[in-house]
Amino acid sequence: MQRKILTKEQALQKLRQYCAYQERSHYEVQQKLYELGVRKAEHDEIISTLIEEDYLNEERFAMQYVGGKFRMKDWGRKKIYYALKEKKVSEYSIKKAMAQIDEEAYHAILHELAEKKYESLKGEQFMVRKKKTIDYLIQKGYESDLVMSALKDIATKE
After folding, report:
1. 51-103: per-residue pLDDT in tens?
2. Which terminus of the chain is more solvent-facing, meaning fewer CB atoms within 10 Å of its CB: N or C?
3. C-alpha dihedral (79, 80, 82, 85), degrees to nearest 10
4. Which intervals hold domain RecX second three-helical (predicted)?
């Protein structure tokens, strides 16, 4: 089956909608260009146009991504960092976006998650409860030293 090759203008129109619907990383737009079957020679030009028209902005994407994953999914910094790296976001944009995470809120959410998880494992032995809680928080992307300190606080409350 022959894939229809889009003209540059058709591709640009599709990508304007794609970017207007939700913030996208440069990498996601690049992948979409391949998906649409746009000639590789036109990729850079299309991406430049999207940036000039402010449909595509890596910093803005990183800010929204960090905010969303932290507030909605309770992800820790490590998980967010690696997810952004996977989307090929620049180190500069990642650092700038991560700086918006409020330190107090970060610790509060970590403690809340730790308490909930620990509480949900009430029937388990102490060491099993502790290990499962640690594993859960690490998988959520929280730093191990913060996880340990949060667990120490919970264990001393008992």
Report:
1. 999 999 999 999 999 999 999 999 999 999 999 999 999 999 999 999 999 99
2. N
3. 170
4. 57-98
Amino acid at 156: T
Q: Where do we find the tokens 């120490």?
A: 152
3-state SS string for the chain: CCCCCCCHHHHHHHHHHHHHHCCCCHHHHHHHHHHHCCCHHHHHHHHHHHHHCCCCCHHHHHHHHHHHHHHHHCCCHHHHHHHHHHCCCCHHHHHHHHCCCCHHHHHHHHHHHHHHHHHHCCCCCHHHHHHHHHHHHHHCCCCHHHHHHHHHHHHHHC
Measured between alpha carbons, how far is 65 from 69 in angstroms, rounded to an integer? 6
Burial of 2 (0-12, 13-18, 19+ CB in 10 A): exposed
For the chain, how big is the Rg over CA atoms in Å? 21
